[in-house]
Amino acid sequence: MGIKNPEAQRKAFWDGHNDARKLSTPLCHEDDIKILTVQGKSLLLIRVPQASRMQRPVYINGNPLIGTYKRNYEGDYRCTETEVRQMLRDASDEPQDYGIIENFTIEDLDSDTLKAYRNRFVSREPDHPFLALDNQGLLEKLNGWRRNRKTGQEGLTLAGLFMFGKEQSILEAFPHYQLDYQEHLSDDPEVRWTYRLTLDGRWESNIFNFYARVYRRLTDDLDVPFKLDTQGIRQGETHVHEALREALINCLVHADHRSTRPIKIVKRRDRIEFLNPGRLRISLDQLYEGGLSDPRNPAMLKMFQLLGLGEKSGSGMPKILRAWREQSWLKPLVSEKLDLDMTQMTLPVISLIPEEIDQEIKDIVGDAYSYLSELDRFILVLAHRFGKIGNADIKLHRPEHPREIGDHLKNLVQQGCLKQSENGRGTRYSLQGKIVPDLFSEMDINSEHYQRKSEHKETSFEHNGSNSEHYAHLLSLAEPIRNKQRTAPEQVKSVIIQLCADEFLSLRTLAELLNRAPDSVRNHYIKPMLKAGLLEARYPIQHNHPQQAYKTRIEH
Predict the structure, then answer these.
(1) pTM, entire model
(2) What contacts 19, CB < 8 A, 6 or more positions away?
(3) Helix/strand/coil (H/E/C) assignment for every residue in 302-357
(4) In this structure, are residues 496 and 482 in contact, taking their beta carbons and an 8 Å threshold?
(5) Coil, strand, or helix at residue 118?
(6) 8 Å CB contact between 43 and 36
(7) Cα(first)–Cα(last) distance of the chain, in Å?
(8) For helices 298-305 and 239-253, what crossing angle results, to 10°?
(9) Which range of residues forms the domain containing residue 368?
């Protein structure tokens, strides 16, 4: 329908937007408002940037408690007082865990937890000067005990109580405090959980004890090596251990501990979920990119860092992403649950590599598999699939420089994972202990684009025995359109459906059979047929998979 007088409406918007009595924080800039003409109709396009944590809450009519709204699905809803106060806490420059709790003393801390912390500290840095102090002196250095110079107030901080406190003392100060770790590892739908750790009076449920117990549960069944030396120090720890530790500590130190929501961690067979109260304090893009950190509880983070745990430089998420890439697992997902004012990180433990292939490579390579990089594993998968491979074959699917790929190939040979044949540019590599044909040579896939060398080229199949007969059958199906320059698209689609009726065929094979360029087949036929549900992909999630192929979809 469009709008009338767009200039007048733009002025009305700016008048309200810049009126401090109407809007608490103006967010838009001049280039965020545009007048567009679509099909002869005028539209006013307003882009509203996301408010930073220091700008929130953004409210109207001068009162944040009744003038703050948030968008849930299709509507705007007034925020509760609890939600507004959470935003006000985040907007403050004062770290949340620095606050002094009145009428609480060192007697509210668990002596065994403090002792365990000291022991970890000693094992890492036995000569650190903090260790010569008594418990109160140590807490002062950790910001677990603090004196306010302005008011003269002195006492236990939130960080000290949450990290080392007795369960009863924490609950007296924060009645909604809740820690919940669950394992859902049973196939029986009647089993709610197979293990649970929560506040039940059986242990002193402070943050430090929770971390120690949960980290062991998260890593005790990892199919990767984990060793301790005689002093209990980590040796040979993998990037997956490091990633799980980062995810757990991030969940604890970024939580809004004054919230009524719980810290909840759920370990499932196919994923691990970390939920903490409070929204992200940086954008999702900044989080995934790394390099920026804005912890909600910096004192607690410092306590972990003195033990060699946790990162402050914003490298935690990149380390998690690296570990998951190396394992060929689906990408970790971070999201905000705005209706609950919580943040969730989900770490899938589902491999992009088919399980049977992954297991066969593990059986061939042995224990070394757990230490391989993402590129190493990709190389082994290609070697498993195609028998013999060369540097150029790998470069076709990877961004790394050929020199770097060559270094990885040499290392895999030295480790006994690959065996080398021939020399120079013709050097080929295959899995140690596995004899398979060199499919890369037969398929001639080193060329990035299809080249028609012969009108009757038949390179995708071995031309002997049943394969030759099968290829001849496919050629006969494609014959009606094979040598025709102009063919109705529906006729081509019909032939593709016949060709793919009984098996998955690659784009290259289809292009050869149809006597057409691969790009043309992909863009004019494969993509539309996938979208229409006429074809199915062997790897529907990983579209550029090197062994991608297509088959006629059969409705059941």
Answers:
(1) 0.60
(2) none
(3) HHHHCCCCCCCCCCHHHHHHHHHHHCCECCCEEEEECCCCEEEEEEECCECCCHHH
(4) no
(5) helix
(6) yes
(7) 45
(8) 150
(9) 355-443
Is 460 within a domain? no
Q: What pLDDT, in 10s, does the model give residues 165-196?
A: 999 999 999 999 999 999 999 888 888 899 99
Q: Are residues 214 and 284 in the same domain?
A: yes
Residue 124 neighbours by CB under 8 Å, 6+ apart: 233, 306, 307, 308
Residue 448 inside a domain? The answer is: no
How many CB atoms are closer than 10 A to CB 128?
A: 12
CB under 8 Å to 340, separation ≥6 — which residues?
261
| Secondary structure of residue 448 in the 3-state scheme | coil
> Rounded to an integer, what distance in angstroms lies between the CA atom of residue 298 and that of residue 308?
15
Assess whether 188 and 315 both reside in one domain.
Answer: yes
Residue 256: the pLDDT is 92
Judge contact between 248 and 212, C-beta under 8 A. no
| Distant-in-sequence, close-in-space partners of 494: CB < 8 Å, separation ≥ 6 | none
For the record, the structure tokens of 72 come out as 């849930």
Q: Count up the domains in the chain and report the number.
A: 5
**502 and 520 share one domain:** yes
Amino acid at 357: I
One domain, residues 261 and 325: yes
Widest distance between CA atoms in the chain: 93
Return the SS3 of 193. coil
Compute the residue count for the chain: 556
Q: What number of other Cβ atoms are within 10 A of residue 101's Cβ?
A: 19
Decide which of 153, 173, 193 is a domain's last residue.
Answer: 173
Closest of 246, 258, 284, 261 to residue 342, by C-alpha = 261
d(CA 213, CA 202): 13
Examine the domain organization and report whether 340 and 435 are in the same domain.
no
Residue type, 22: K
Residue 495 CB contacts under 8 Å (≥ 6 apart), including other chains = 477, 478, 480, 481, 514
Side-chain half-sphere CA neighbours of 58 within 13 A? 16
CB 164 within 8 A of CB 170: no
Contact 394, 410 (CB under 8 A): no
CA distances in angstroms from 27 to 23, 48, 412, 554, listed in the order given? 10, 7, 54, 53
Q: Which of 67, 91, 115 is the last residue of a domain?
A: 91
Residue pLDDT, tens place only, 222-266: 765 544 444 444 455 788 999 999 999 999 999 999 889 999 999
